[in-house]
């Protein structure tokens, strides 16, 4: 800004990390809609639910789906619902409330949005303006949510088994030779060639990696990944209450974002640390 | 040959037929019209297929559809300007463009003559979430009459016709529409503007943003609008619009004539929009809206570079401090108006954990790490520059970042109470970068320091 750049206004900036490290940024694949219960589902009392696996930092948000007949295919939802129930059992991610489905077939009633933690580039800080003051609070984690469609795999697996051939769906990608095949039976029908390759690779190394039965031939990276995956599957889901933006609890939490003190804080680091701490410089 | 002549003769004779019959049959049940259109005037004098005119008169829900019908009338005129030049029916069906789009507040205001005029609901929506979204206002018709209106966006017809309306492939759907009219004579042809598909129903697909903004952006003043316009587009079209503008910047005066009505208004507001947004964001006092329980404050997202400055609270416990390796004598930090005099050495940290902390201090450290206080001030300049001045001579520039097109929630995950509390939607992003002048000056000073820094390896790093 050259010339006279007049100062128009000054806003004091507060900083607090009262809620750290629990302040997250969640990103949803929604363009124009907020994340809310569809009105038809809200009318029948359904709410958004959430569950968390705190150690592996995985969250799931279950959003009820709009089941009006004009936009929802009930039969398909029954098929997929059954697939999802089986998928849940397999992956240890059952929903606690199964009672609703007694006496009738399970159906899909919600979209499960699973989180993926993304690395933060730099330091993310949330700012809120109130009464002419800007309050900053650091954001510890950033999660991106996307709907899980793992029940589709189960569904295709089931239909493939019953029908025996591909019917109208493609095969999935060929199985990862290093991944312990969860359902060897159907895959072996289809891809004996691939299985043959697997056997060859497996001969090299056996049984390394902290007592877990890896098929061998794994690099350390893959072993770590598999360990992580197993750890995640083993951890139980912790059900959380999802408080939307207008609930009292959310308002209360919101208030904590604001700094309460007017004390001036001292700054320990210098602007030069920004350059000096660049890795590799 | 003779057949051709005969048919062309017929065509010639009935050249005015379709339009006449179209006009006259406009009052008839719509089922008649397309069949007429197909039978007559299909063949031009040359024997080629004429562009079919499919009148798009609704049969049901006259109010809404009348509304929809009128705006498409101006739409084809603009679309023909743009060289699409299709028949009126097709242009209407598609809204004049090959894709649907969702309106955003600035373009909505400015393209009133286009399909955006179709309804107040559109003006209130924000495809880009610029509206204060921390108040969780739902977008799609959700008002008090929501339940009743839920299905209102859909025709009172069975599923097949529903697909017809919401079709993404306009070309395909046009044919289907015609066929559907044949097969279901009591179904009307309904005009759906592709941009407004989103408004039709809760489950309606997202309407894509229109690319006609690319043309308009050319009319803007050329000074440093590139980035801002990219942000305006926000999405895939951003790159193309930037290129278009680079190329067409010289053509600005020429192009202005084309879209004058739209362009001038646009350039005025969209030019200033980015700057003003920052200024608005920071320099305004919140206007309280109706809802009492809804939070009025907007949430902003700031991206700071690593490492975030370490702030300490002047009066935290001294006992815990002594073991802390990071304790140093802080420099004078004259910052904002509410300064306090205490400059005791203390430690605190926010995002960057201290390099080494004595284990015994961890508990106290964890507590005392919670800092709370004033760390600086945000200075807004007349030119629109925003600077964040913090202690130790840290000056950072604040600029608007690419605005997210998706939904972002700031969430508090409460492990103790097992709650996931949504604090609000974060719609505006800002990037904080060090002010280069200040940075270089400080580096300079650091290079030629008084003796106290000799012991550190930092000095050598600088000269490397």
Fold and architecture overview:
The complex is a heterodimer of chains A (281) and B (464). Chain A is an alpha+beta fold. Chain A has one domain. In chain A, 30% of the residues lie in helices and 24% in strands. In chain A, strands 2-8-5-4-3-9 form a 6-stranded mixed sheet. Chain A has a 3-stranded mixed sheet with strand order 1-7-6, with no helix packed on it. Chain A starts with 6 loop residues before the first strand and ends in a 5-residue tail after the last helix. By secondary structure, chain B is an alpha+beta fold. Chain B is 38% helix and 12% strand. Chain B is built from 21 helices and 7 strands. Chain B has helices spanning 2-13, 17-24, 32-39, 62-69, 74-81, 88-94, 105-110, 120-123, 146-150, 159-165, 170-183, 197-200, 212-217, 226-233, 236-248, 252-258, 260-283, 318-321, 362-368, 436-447, 458-463, and strands spanning 299-304, 311-312, 372-381, 386-390, 394-400, 407-414, 419-434. In chain B, strands 1, 3, 4, 5, 6 and 7 form a 6-stranded mixed sheet that branches. In chain B, helix 14 packs antiparallel against helix 15 (236-248). The termini of chain B are far apart. The relative contact order of chain B is 0.08. Classes of the chains: A alpha+beta (281), B alpha+beta (464). Strand 1 (7-16) of chain A pairs antiparallel with strand 3 (372-381) of chain B, so a sheet runs across the interface.
